[in-house]
Write a structure and sequence with these properties.
By secondary structure, the chain is an alpha/beta fold. It is built from 6 helices and 13 strands. The N terminus is likely disordered.
Length: 226
């Protein structure tokens, strides 16, 4: 069996500023611009640009700057959100709330619990949910928003995104982190798994229901920032 290369993507940062010619295939891990932890990735492969989460509100400007370095057209073909916590969704919410038109965001993918679920099982993070859902509802057309479904496959040219796992309302322990969508991205001959902040309970569900689907990954973003 192929050796599984489980890699902390904290070590995988491709710096573009030193490059005079834009590379065709890029994976960038964003760094934080506030005291908070955060998670944000940019992938570009064969002309298609993907953002995973993006970080806090304070990370917005750095994220936009990096995207402009990578893509002359400033198009994000798919913005993938793992879960509603502000250290993952704040940058997108801040950009949308600003009214700026720096980016052309083709599609936003997410699956969040409803307010009643969060108010019951993680009330201290209810504001995180209402901030991002309000920004999406007020500033993004319905055609751009896509509610994730487990087993869904998204094709962007040569890049394929599989939605392996979505929010499970039966898991109420560590509710916000365990609501994370799990994305598998196959691009440029590599398989990358994004776990978001998936907790123990969600991880056990993932292994129980989708173990074969996530075997032999080339890179794994470790849950809860490693």
């Amino acid at each position: 069996m192929k050796k599984i290369k489980t890699v902390l993507l904290f070590a995988l940062l491709i710096t573009l500023s030193a490059c005079s010619v834009k590379p065709e295939n890029v994976l960038v891990q964003m760094t934080d611009h506030s005291p908070s932890q955060m998670m944000g990735y940019i992938i570009q492969s064969n002309g298609k640009t993907i953002v995973v989460d993006g970080g806090t509100r304070e990370d917005k400007d750095a994220l936009l700057e990096e995207l402009k370095k990578i893509d002359d057209d400033n198009v994000v073909d798919a913005w993938l959100l793992t879960h509603y916590h502000k250290d993952h969704t704040g940058a997108l919410a801040a950009y949308l709330d600003s009214g700026a038109d720096d980016l052309d965001i083709e599609s936003i993918y997410y699956d969040f619990p409803n307010e009643n679920f969060v108010a019951t099982y993680e009330p201290n993070r209810l504001e995180d949910l209402t901030n991002i859902t309000s920004s999406l509802e007020q500033h993004v057309s319905q055609d751009t928003l896509h509610k994730n479904e487990a087993g869904e496959k998204i094709e962007l040219g040569d890049t394929v995104i599989d939605i392996v796992r979505v929010f499970n309302p039966l898991i109420t322990e560590n509710a916000g982190n365990n609501s994370s969508t799990v994305y598998k991205i196959e691009t440029n001959g590599n398989k990358i798994l994004f776990l978001g902040d998936l907790g123990l309970e969600g991880g056990e569900q993932l292994l129980s229901e989708s173990k074969k689907e996530i075997e032999n990954m080339d890179y794994v973003q470790m849950a809860h920032h490693g």
